[in-house]
Each structure stands twice: as structure tokens, then as C-alpha cells.
Amino acid sequence: MLNNFFSNKKVKLGLLIFWVVIIYQTLITALVEVEKISPQSTLSDYKNAYWYSVVTLTTVGYGDLFPLTTHGRIIGGVFVLLSMIFYATVIGGVSSIIVNIKENKKLGYEGTNFSNHIVMIGWNDFGSLVADQLFGVGKKIGIVTDSKTTVDFIKDKYQTKDLFVLFNDYKNIDFYKKINIELSSMVFINQTSDTDKLVTALNLKKHFPNLKLSVALHNSELKETFIAAGVEQIILQHEISSKLLASYIFEPDVADYAESIMSFATSDDDFDIKQFKVVAENPYLHKNYEEVFFNLKMKYNGVLIGISKINKDGERELIKNPALDLKIELGDYLIIILNGKAHQHVSKIFNVEEGLIQ
Questions:
Q1: I need a surface site. Which of 136, 153, 245, 313 has the fewest CB within 10 A?
Q2: The whole model's pTM is what?
Q3: CA-CA distance, 118 to 182, in Å (whole number)?
């Protein structure tokens, strides 16, 4: 009980102030008493002694008051020494506070106001490639890492206002609030092992049940387990890479084409696949696929290759190469091949940015 009392920060501060006052008053009393020996001394009363101590401790030192006796000068020297210690302590304390503020800001402890952003938990080479693509299409990303050295590396690589980095133990669920995880559009769990990914997914779903989670798995046998854990998007890395490799072996041009349009357009003439949600202001709302297909091709040299719709079970269904009479409805997603220049025009007339919108 007594140990807990003295370990309290407020108690420690109170005791420190108490002893500082005692020592200060002792020195003042000693100075006055020894200076009374000299009739010419102006420090033989407490009023002048207090004034002398203040100007000495604040390093002002007007020189109008000074001790005349040997013992008085020794005590005056103590005041000078204390003034140096005092200022060193104050400057050191202020410097420490400034350093801590900068460090906390660098590590993300001040939080962010990001919303509808992507949260990536874990950093590695694969995550870096994913971030390259996301930043390329103008997405905001909040990255959580458990390595302080990684924080500097990420910020040096992506010097953009669309990045927020948080240093955090992945098991510290409360800290995820600093990255505004509840307002994110998707959380990509990018830890090294599938086991760690599963633990993180379960913890996040427990505390933030409305999150949309995405993982890239090494072990395809765990897919059903992650689905049961509430993970919406599951990417099987080996399955995708094996399909692409097989395509390169016997259909190299197809593989080149697929790889090219999967990445973001790096120039106005470069093509990639875009996904746009159909909102009320979309000019193609309630029109059929055939009309929209030819209109997009003639106006923007775009190719409408698919439509994503909500089926009767409430699940999203991707329709590849739709029937000509298929109607475009509110909430559908249009999958279009566009170049960089046409993307800007289409995004403007659709009155919506590309990508998934919650």
C-alpha cells in the first residue's frame, strides 16, 4: 500500500516540490544570517535576499545586490549553480516533450481523419506491390506495422498526403481506432503467416463487426476457415500465380494482356480495367447493355466487359459478357476497359470515382 502511494506520479511531484521549497528556504535563511555579520551588506534582510535569489536563478543578475561575506558568496555560488541546473532541467524537459510529440506524430499516435480508405495490416514486399497499385489509382491507405524502422521506410518511399502509418502491436485492438479503421472501406490483412492473419481477422471482427476484411492466403485449404471468420475477400496467391504462369507457357500474349490491364494505367494512352458504381446521376441508368456498350466504345474507346449485380440472394454476382438486353440498374457496377484519358471523362459523367463504394 505504501509502495503504491509513493509510486504515484502526483505524490512524487508533490514531494519534489516540497523538498525544493525546503532547500530554497534554507539557503535564503542561511544567506541572510551570514550577511548580517557585514554592516554594509544589503542582503541582511529577507526582502533583498529573495530578490537576489530570483534574479540569480533567472540568470538576469542586475548586479545591484551581491553578498559581501565569504560564506554569503559561497551560498550565492550555490544559487548560481542551482540556476544552471534549473535551466538545464527546463530546456531538457521542453526538448524531451518536443521530441516525444514528433515521435508520436511519426508513429501515428495522433491519429488520422481518413475515411473510405484502405487499411493494410502488416508490411512486406507483397504489401509494397499492393500499395503501389492503390496509390497509383489515388486511394488513401493507412498502413499498420509492428516495426519502427519500417515506419521511416514507408514514409520515405511514399511521400504523399494519402498515406498514414501507425506503429502498433497487431494484437492491440484499441490502437486500430487511431487509423480510423471503423470508417475504412476495406481492411487488407497482410501478415506473414496465415495463422496470424486468422487471429487478427477474428479479433477485428469481434471488436469491429462491420469491417470488410481481405486476405491473401498461402494455404488454399484455409479458405473455408477464413470465410467462417467473416473475411469477405480471399485471394489465393499460389492459385493466381499458377494460372498466370500456365498462361505464359502456352498463351504468352494472353498473359501479357491480362497482366497489363490488371495494373493501373501509367499514362493517358495506357489501358486498365475500371469498376464504376451506377448512381442515380449515371446517364446509362435503365439502359440496356448493347446501347451502353456501343456508346462507351464510340465516345470514349472503352469496352464494357462485364456488370456486377446483386442477385436474389443478396449477393453480388459478376456477369461476364452480358446479354445484349440486360438492363443497367441502380447499384450495379460497370466493368470497363479504359485508357487513362478516357477514365477522367467517364468518372466525371458517371459522377463517381472508380472502385468499390460502401
A1: 313
A2: 0.68
A3: 11
